[in-house]
Amino acid sequence: MKKQLVTSVDVTYVCHNTGDYMELVVLGEVFYMRRTRFLKRLVRKVIHKVEVPMDYFTSVEEAKAEARRQMDKFVKAYYATA
């Protein structure tokens, strides 16, 4: 049985270990929620991440739409495999 997947998209800064340069990206995550064994807390289990870099020529809405498009493609492939 497949798990119910949740997607989230947010704008954030990411450091790629290239000095002190922080890059502005749209970060999308596909995850599901599960409970821990001992303390029974809800935790997020991320199974796929998407990073869409932003620059001065792309708007936030366009970058978020591209991230959602890539995540939808992954989710469809996830549910297509039985």
Structural features, described:
- With 82 residues, this protein is α+β, with helices and mostly antiparallel strands.
- The chain has one domain (6-80).
- The protein contains one helix and three strands.
- The protein has one helix spanning 60-80, and strands spanning 6-15, 22-35, 42-53.
- A hairpin with a 6-residue loop joins strand 2 and strand 3 (42-53).
- The protein is globular.
Number of domains: 1
Instruction: Order the strands across the largest sheet as they lie in space.
Output: 1-2-3
What characteristic shape results from the CA principal axes? Answer: globular
Helix content: 25-40%
> Can you tell me the residue ranges where pLDDT is under 50 for at least 5 consecutive residues?
none
Largest sheet: 3 strands, antiparallel
- The overall pLDDT average reads 91
